[in-house]
Write a structure and sequence with these properties.
Number of helices: 7
Number of strands: 14
Distance between the termini: 92 Å
Structural class: alpha/beta
Helix content: 10-25%
Strand content: 25-35%
Radius of gyration: 21 Å
Oligomer: single chain
Shape: globular
Strand order of the largest sheet: 10-9-8-11-14-13
């Protein structure tokens, strides 16, 4: 008489999504990494946003071959996102593109010269981060060796005055590098800014080889459409992860109505209750 085959118990694990690529997700647990895919029922959910991204915490089952099947994505504490760019200039798909889920902090890198700082784009980054309620938001003013720290402080004086921490940095002169290294320690950080501001040089100065690892991800990400198909959290020596992004040329604010925009300017927010106009645009009103 043949003995009945005992069904193997299903092993459920919890982990952090550290890489996404064409429908495959690398999930890091305390013990190992697993390459996972989403269960079919998860794929049937809303397509207005991304179902699983770097920074997500997930529950998954381990298959007999060692791969995994993601059963559930835990509710996100916060997301840094934008309107997904379209192939056609000036248009969007009205779909949310999530840059990262559950970041502990955002470091926005802008050069003080070469290229000149695009402060309106910086404002958009800050608004997106404020809307996401990211606990720690920092501006890195890079390439201070080109104009000197005193002149750099003049350029970013407004942001310093309203309370944003600013790290004045130069990879060439090793300025601000230790401060950046300390900020990245034991945190999940998004490290982003426009093209040409020197993010790779800073990452190389912080940790040799870090920029090279990030660049290989960024090159794959920028192929074809601007939709992110390959994202990765890069581990930092001593603990933590950094998610660098390709240079962002535009940042369409997601799910923000004009009437609520004032709530995300930190210098205006405390005074909203004092305004006598309920729909104030802060442009034409007395």
């Amino acid at each position: 008489m043949t003995e009945p085959t005992l069904k193997q118990p299903v092993i459920k694990q919890h982990g952090l999504v550290i890489k996404t690529h064409s429908g495959f997700y690398t999930v890091q647990t305390d013990q190992a990494k697993y390459i996972c895919q989403l269960r079919g029922r998860l794929k049937d959910q809303s397509k207005r946003t991304e179902l699983c991204v770097i920074g997500d915490r997930v529950t998954f089952e381990v298959n007999a071959d060692g791969s995994g099947a993601i059963e559930a994505v835990e509710p996100r504490e916060r997301v840094l996102s934008r309107v997904e760019p379209s192939n056609f200039a000036g248009t969007s798909t009205e779909r949310e593109q999530i840059i990262i889920a559950n970041p502990d902090q955002a470091i926005f890198v802008f050069a003080v010269a070469n290229p000149e700082p695009h402060v309106r784009l910086l404002d958009r980054f800050l608004i997106a981060a404020e809307k996401a309620s990211i606990p720690s938001i920092c501006i890195c003013a890079n390439k201070v060796d080109l104009i000197g720290e005193e002149a750099a402080r003049v350029l970013f004086a407004t942001y310093e005055k309203i309370g944003y921490p600013i790290i004045y940095a130069s990879a060439q002169q090793n300025v601000g590098i230790e401060t950046l290294r300390e900020r990245l320690h034991d945190k999940i950080s998004v490290f982003t800014g426009p093209s040409g501001v020197g993010k790779s040089s800073l990452l190389n100065a912080i940790e040799p080889g870090l920029a090279r690892a990030v660049k290989s991800v960024s090159l794959a990400t920028t192929k074809g459409r601007h939709t992110t198909v390959n994202s990765e959290l890069i581990p930092v020596i001593g603990g933590g992860y950094v998610a660098d992004t390709p240079g962002i040329r535009s940042l369409g604010l997601w799910d923000i109505e004009p009437g609520e925009l004032d709530a995300y300017f930190v210098e205006i927010h405390p005074h909203i209750v004092e305004c006598r106009f309920s729909d104030c645009t802060h442009v034409d009103e007395p």
